[in-house]
Write a structure and sequence with these properties.
globular, Enolase-like, domain 1, 39% helix, 13 helices, alpha/beta, 2 domains, TIM Barrel, four-stranded mixed β-sheet, 19% strand
């Protein structure tokens, strides 16, 4: 079988909800249950492309799953050509807009299509894309939410030791700015000066608050300050970027590569970190990475560490991979983390195989 002649047969989806080991406690939301849409792209040749979506809100799966099934009906009998399928899926939903749930559904399809094509080629995805199997620098983003400073500092040791990490992300946005400062200082005292510390406000501040608080953080040697204000206030981000010494990081809410281009044109950030379900899966990432590369802007990932590792191996300005293990319970063999590096397995495709017992045990009634 020639890998370039795979034929689309159908899409199978399953809604799963997992309990988070360390619940999300951010300024704008508290999340204890984590929704995952398990996607299997079936081909006539028997190759199955796998991907998953993590849409934050369990009820959103009611709308995403029918959209994915509509893609299955639309694409039946077509060749698996990810770039063409990506464009076709987006145009199919043109009249409801290219952003939001439309892009998320198209991204899930795209990641599964690339996985199927790489499996048929008997290559890891990173090799099919022109790179090599290897490791990617990662920081641990599994915790450090809005808790008391001493509790966060203790957890920082746990997170560091989960994989010999040299980078950790803290969440900020407590009622008192002084409590955020105390937390950073407690963590720094615990993990030492060599640890890269990123901070994320999760869009929890207005611009006036952000100007005050970010200037208070500007001499603490932080790796970046992430999304202090609502994601689409690019004028505000441009002001923060111009005023602060600490790099401003945005991008998890870019819906497609043009959003990234717009942000860079407006000098709204120093770093970018697209999310795979919003940027457009692998195809959207590759297009966005070319824009970031031309601008010389460091590019990190958001969620989806497995597919993220593969594309980072072919990203010109690859910076940090965000490590979160929230999907690990449904994976047969999660990726290995050692010495702060995520190691890509030398296996065809992305390397996702489902733990069917775990999937069955956590199926959601939506």
């Amino acid at each position: 079988m020639r890998f370039e002649s795979l034929t689309f047969k159908s899409i199978k989806t399953r809604p799963v909800v997992l309990k988070l080991k360390r619940p999300v406690a951010a300024r704008i939301a508290t999340i204890t249950d984590w929704p995952i849409i398990v996607i299997d792209l079936q081909t006539e040749e028997g190759i199955v492309g796998r991907s998953y979506l993590e849409p934050y809100v369990t009820k959103s799966m009611k709308y995403l799953i029918p959209a994915l099934h509509d893609f299955g009906d639309l694409l039946k009998g077509r060749r698996i050509t990810p770039v063409e399928l990506y464009d076709l899926a987006r145009k199919f939903l043109h009249f409801v807009g290219y952003q939001g749930l439309s892009m998320i559904a198209a991204s899930g399809l795209d990641m599964a299509a690339w996985d199927a094509l790489a499996k048929a080629a008997k290559m890891p995805l990173c090799v099919l894309l022109g790179g090599s199997v290897g490791s990617v620098k990662a920081y641990n983003s599994n915790g450090l939410w809005l808790r008391k400073p001493e509790a966060v500092a203790d957890e920082a040791i746990e997170l560091r030791d989960e994989g010999g990490f040299t980078g950790l992300k803290l969440r900020l946005g407590r009622e008192r700015a002084e409590d955020d400062l105390a937390t950073i200082k407690a963590v720094r005292k615990t993990v030492g000066d060599d640890m890269h510390l990123m901070v994320d406000f999760n869009q929890g501040l207005n611009l006036a608050e952000a100007l005050q608080r970010c200037h208070m953080l500007d001499d603490l040697g932080l790796a970046w300050i992430e999304e202090p204000i609502v994601y689409d206030n690019l004028d505000g981000f441009a002001q923060l970027t111009a005023e602060l010494k600490t790099p401003i990081q945005i991008g998890e809410n870019f819906y497609g590569p043009r959003d990234l281009h717009n942000a860079l044109q407006r000098k709204a950030c120093d770093f970018v970190m697209p999310d795979f379900m919003r940027i457009g899966g692998v195809t959207g990432w590759l297009r966005a990475a070319a824009i970031a590369g031309a601008a010389g802007i460091p590019m990190s990932t958001h969620l989806y560490p497995e597919v993220a590792a593969h594309v980072m191996r072919v990203t010109e300005t690859a910076h940090w991979l965000e490590w979160q293990d929230w999907a690990d319970p449904i994976l047969q063999k999660p990726y290995d983390i050692k010495d702060g590096l995520l190691h890509i397995p030398d296996a065809p495709g992305v390397g996702l195989e489902w733990n069917e017992d775990a999937v069955a045990a956590n199926l959601a009634d939506i």
